Amino acid sequence: MNNKGYAVRYLLPVAVWMIIIFVSSSIPQDDFPHVEFWGWAKLVHLIYYGVLCLLCQRALGGQTRFPALARHSYLLGVLFAVLYGTTDEYHQLTTAGRHGRMTDVLIDGFGALLCLVGLWAYRMFHPRAAGDPSGE
Predict the structure, then answer these.
(1) For an engineered disulfide with 96, which of 28, 88, 91, 111 has Cβ 3.0 to 4.6 Å away?
(2) Could you tell me where the DSSP H helices lie in the chain?
């Protein structure tokens, strides 16, 4: 796959998802929709950073130029999600009514780990998804 194809297929989804996270973190607390569901904000963190981790792992694992990055794509996906979560919490300190919390960074990391456990389990029970053409 050429560089442009790789960028569109793998890097663009990561960038778009990061923008979605940034924009939603830029909404002042008073303008944010109020949801009457215990833990809703934490669930959003789990989903946002689980998806970010998945997209990062996919991008790193899908490239062939740097084999070490592909080989460690799971760990690097989690690390990237946690680092971006950290910068996002810092960004929220500058947004009206929002707060940056270390517990949210931990929840982001937990969401990333949950996503990878799900991906691992899926690939364990669906060998073709892991790149085994025989399906055995």
Answers:
(1) 28
(2) 3-6, 12-25, 40-61, 67-71, 73-92, 102-125
C-alpha to C-alpha distance for 104 and 21, rounded to whole angstroms:
13
pLDDT over 50 (residue 72): yes
Q: Name the token pair of 92.
A: 């929220």
According to the model, what pLDDT value does residue 37 have?
64
Phi-psi domain of 93 (left: phi exceeds 0; alpha: psi -120 through 50; beta: other) = alpha
Cβ–Cβ under 8 Å, residues 84 and 90: no
Give residue for tokens 């991008």. Answer: 59
pLDDT score of 131: 55
